């Protein structure tokens, strides 16, 4: 391994060379999925006859925005939905999820989360832990229930069927990725089995099945909509933005449900007919075009990180040889000092702000101090190489992203060198 630009010690380079040998089979599988998804996206662009005129945005009300319309159609086709809305009007993934939940639920409705406690930033949206008064679902009389995962971290299908049978459930909420936990991320097949279980209980009046699809787009050849989900939601500064989109999110799925979401995003009766795209359409389309390849590079970076840190004596989840269902790689680093050293080392391999030293801080929406390494071209982008972790047990870091593997590999090695030097 060349060491012309970075001063890695021999122990680390040896461990990295061995890690690369372990990744060969996983990389072949990633390449296969990447090629399939890249052809799927290219086919959608060709089928919808994208032209240069679609790349320029509108102003004012945005009536008759052909670029916006074509971006929505391509997004729906790529994700297997009847309809979609993809827009910079979503401030972030949490905002897109919030939009969908408020669009689909009404006072008195019951929402059932079947993947245990949701990610930290969605809890205030629901109104969990007494966090009410800001316009949460709880403030509007919408009831939250959940079923916990089983001992292996999988959806407890029997518990789900029991909850659906005994309650009038309007919406099933599924979080595909693990959040700040070490449970397995869900495959599209896992989501399909859950959807089938729900429909077996109430085939005539099935609850809406909504999936937080963040970090999972283009990781497999199919998306949750092809396995029984009714709606999927995600962020453009994660997988589907391809490292190009500067902000935004998407909602895709059944036509009537997406339409309700557009009324919440803008206003009733206007929905998707308004909303100037300004100069965002080119970024959205170009990002979506690049997304399958960038996701593949991110997955390679994650697999390499797992193999390297396993070689160094740390526990990685998923393991280097395990199948991938999202781009996140968790590593248990044993203590807060190693965790901080990891993030500070990874930051040194960033193309932007490499000289900055990350420190733990009280981040909005999180209940404890969080440290983040994120030297990205787009602030907060987690399809670019980044890592973050709350300073609490089990002192694991959650790493994601990597626009290209060769730079991602260097960032991971600098993170490892930081941990080694600290010990």
Describe it.
This protein is an alpha/beta fold and 423 residues long. It is 39% helix and 13% strand. It contains 11 helices and 12 strands. The strands form 2 sheets. It has a 7-stranded mixed β-sheet, sandwiched between helices. It has a 5-stranded antiparallel β-sheet with strand order 8-9-12-11-10, covered by helices on one side. Strand 11 and strand 12 form a beta hairpin. Helix 4 crosses helix 8 and helix 10 packs antiparallel against helix 11. The chain is globular. The mean pLDDT is 95.
Strand content: 5-15%
* Physical arrangement of strands within the biggest beta sheet: 1-7-6-5-4-2-3
Radius of gyration: 21 Å
Give the tally of β-strands. 12
Average of pLDDT:
95
Overall geometric form:
globular
Main beta sheet: 7 strands, mixed
- Low-confidence runs (pLDDT<50, min 5 residues)? none
Cα distance spanning the termini:
24 Å
Output the helix-strand order. HHHEHEHEHEHEEEHHEEHEEEH
Q: Count of helices? A: 11
What descriptors fit this protein?
single chain, 423 residues, 7-stranded mixed β-sheet, 39% helix, globular
């Amino acid at each position: 391994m060349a060491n012309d630009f970075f001063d890695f010690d021999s122990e680390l380079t040896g461990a990295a060379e061995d890690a690369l040998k372990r990744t060969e089979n996983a990389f072949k599988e990633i390449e296969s999925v990447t090629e399939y998804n890249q052809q799927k996206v290219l086919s959608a662009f060709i089928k919808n006859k994208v032209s240069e005129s679609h790349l320029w945005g509108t102003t004012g009300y945005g009536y008759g925005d052909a670029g916006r319309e074509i971006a929505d159609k391509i997004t729906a086709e790529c994700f297997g939905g009847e309809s979609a809305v993809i827009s910079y009007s979503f401030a972030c993934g949490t905002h897109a999820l919030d939009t969908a939940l408020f669009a689909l639920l009404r006072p008195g409705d019951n929402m059932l989360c079947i993947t245990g406690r949701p990610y930290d930033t969605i809890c205030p949206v629901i109104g969990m832990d007494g966090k009410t008064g800001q316009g949460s679902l709880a403030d509007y009389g919408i009831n939250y229930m959940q079923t916990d995962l089983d001992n292996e971290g999988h959806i407890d299908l029997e518990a789900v069927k029991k909850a659906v049978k005994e309650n009038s459930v309007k919406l099933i909420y599924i979080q595909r990725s693990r959040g700040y936990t070490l449970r397995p991320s869900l495959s599209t097949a896992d989501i399909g089995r859950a959807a089938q279980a729900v429909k077996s209980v109430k085939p005539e009046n099935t609850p809406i099945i909504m999936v937080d699809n963040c970090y999972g787009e283009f990781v497999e050849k199919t998306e949750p909509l092809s396995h029984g989900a009714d709606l999927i939601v995600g962020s453009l500064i994660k997988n589907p933005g391809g490292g190009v989109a500067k902000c935004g999110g998407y909602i895709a799925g059944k036509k009537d449900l997406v339409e309700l979401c557009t009324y919440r995003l803008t206003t009733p009766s206007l929905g998707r007919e308004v909303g100037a795209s300004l100069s965002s359409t080119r970024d959205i389309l170009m990002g979506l075009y690049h997304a399958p390849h960038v996701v593949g590079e991110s997955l390679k970076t994650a697999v390499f990180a797992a193999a390297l840190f396993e070689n160094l004596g740390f526990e990685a989840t998923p393991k280097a040889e395990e199948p991938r269902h999202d781009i996140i790689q968790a590593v248990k680093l044993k203590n807060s000092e190693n965790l901080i050293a990891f993030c500070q080392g990874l930051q040194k391999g960033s193309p932007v702000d490499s000289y900055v030293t990350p420190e733990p801080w009280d981040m909005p929406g999180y209940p404890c101090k969080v440290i983040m390494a994120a030297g990205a071209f787009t602030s907060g982008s987690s399809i670019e190489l980044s890592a973050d972790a709350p300073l609490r047990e089990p002192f694991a870091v959650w790493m994601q992203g990597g626009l290209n593997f060769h730079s991602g590999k260097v960032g991971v090695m600098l993170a490892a060198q930081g941990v080694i030097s600290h010990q």
